[in-house]
Amino acid sequence: MNELRRTLKAALELQEEAVLATVVRTSGSVYRRAGARMLFTR
User: Fold this and answer.
1) String of b and e for 1-26 (b: at least 16 CB within 10 Å)?
2) Rounded to whole angstroms, what are the CA distances from 28 to 13, 32, 33, 34?
3) Which residues contact 6 (CB under 8 A, 6 or more apart)?
4) The pLDDT value given to residue 2
5) Backbone angles phi, psi at 2, to 5 degrees
6) What kind and span of H or E run contains 29?
7) Which among 6, 18, 28, 36 has the fewest CB atoms less than 10 Å away?
8) How far apart are CA 34 and CA 31, in angstroms?
9) Beta carbons within 8 Å of 38's beta carbon, 6+ residues apart
10) What are the tens digits of pLDDT across the range 1-42?
């Protein structure tokens, strides 16, 4: 989580567009469980 916060802070400081995605529900065999997060930037 610390890496995510550092990356988000850097994106905000650079006024870069960013989207935080969170896995809310899964079904079957999946790589990540509910609650997993990923930050997308341009």
Assistant:
1) eeeeeeebeebeeeeeeeeeeeeeee
2) 39, 11, 10, 12
3) none
4) 87
5) -60, -40
6) none
7) 28
8) 10
9) 20, 21
10) 688 889 889 989 999 999 999 999 999 999 999 999 999 988
Q: What angle do CA 9, 34, 21 make, to 5 degrees?
A: 35
The residues spanned by each domain of the chain are 2-41
The span from the CA of 17 to the CA of 24, in Å, is 22
Q: Please give the structure tokens belonging to residue 8.
A: 């988000």
Paired tokens of 25: 């529900």
Token reading at 38: 């990923």
